[in-house]
Prior knowledge:
Radius of gyration of chain A: 18 Å
Strand content of chain A: 15-25%
Mean pLDDT of chain A: 94
Oligomer: homodimer
Low-confidence stretches of chain A: none
CATH topology of the domain at 3-87 in chain A: Arc Repressor Mutant, subunit A
Number of strands of chain A: 5
CATH superfamily of the domain at 3-87 in chain A: Winged helix-like DNA-binding domain superfamily/Winged helix DNA-binding domain
Helix content of chain A: 25-40%
Largest interface: A-B, 80 and 80 residues
Structural class of chain A: alpha+beta
CATH class of the domain at 3-87 in chain A: Mainly Alpha
CATH architecture of the domain at 3-87 in chain A: Orthogonal Bundle
Amino acid sequence: MRWSEIDQQTCSVARALSEIGDRWTLLLIRDAFLRARRFDDFVERSGAARNVVANRLEKLVASGILERRAYQTRPERHEYRLTEKGRDLYPVIMTLVAWGDRWHDDGAGPPVRHQHRGCGKRMHAVVACSECREALDPRETRVTVRKER
Amino acid sequence: MRWSEIDQQTCSVARALSEIGDRWTLLLIRDAFLRARRFDDFVERSGAARNVVANRLEKLVASGILERRAYQTRPERHEYRLTEKGRDLYPVIMTLVAWGDRWHDDGAGPPVRHQHRGCGKRMHAVVACSECREALDPRETRVTVRKER
DNA sequence: AGGGTCAGTTTCATTTTGCAACTTATTAGT
DNA sequence: ACTAATAAGTTGCAAAATGAAACTGACCCT
């Protein structure tokens, strides 16, 4: 199976990864959450090659994760902003941050600290059940596969 | 910057992606959560080429996300199991599932349904503050970058 | 002896990257 | 007018990664 066909798997992870699962894409989305807007912002912050950034931004716009809008004419210049679909990747980024903080601590503590405005405390992201808000554990989840027609 | 150097960024997302951010890796981890254990399980379920699976499993073992252990001798055969570090990726997978379910619905509903044993309801994963359990929103989070030495 | 299983490895063509230089449109400075 | 600078890409090309299929090696079963 080619990578370009993984969205044909009957699996939401595969479908998600078909849009955001390649080498630089999630890093660009991270930068978008950190308020990168312009092409050169993304190039500098992500560290990816210019042609790769151009290609990925184009794909992200095509899949509706970023929006490309003119911020000036003469010369025409565009910026990239997260759409609702893109902002909805916040949980993915935050769980990655939490995992990276836990397992890639270089001894100096996490590179970035997160404070929750609601309760004022330092925190990290955990996943919870949408219904009862209890922390989610693999053993506490029952998975049912939909029948194929 | 080459992909092989992104773990040098002072960013937990970058460090996390240096281990799990390439084309097939997260799909293999998904399969591990779905109880794939043997080499051919991973090949069949992921859809990746055998050499790619071999290479990725080796890397996942090297980074401590999977553990390779013999399940028989004569002939020696090994299986791959998630370590604690690997199981700790559950939140990442579940938020990807939730995003895929929401944005890649093919009209027939999500491929897999998740029921929380605790409360008995159908649910999806949300991210919450580790301290107060309130749902997390980008606007409700304050980010402080650690000073570089 | 012949066939099957499992866990890879090898080979080779095709794709994808990474880097640097180049382009285009326009403004700012001298 | 000439020169530089800025922003947002594009182009060319070498190096690396992927993908498909065939092959290997150790063993078991009949």
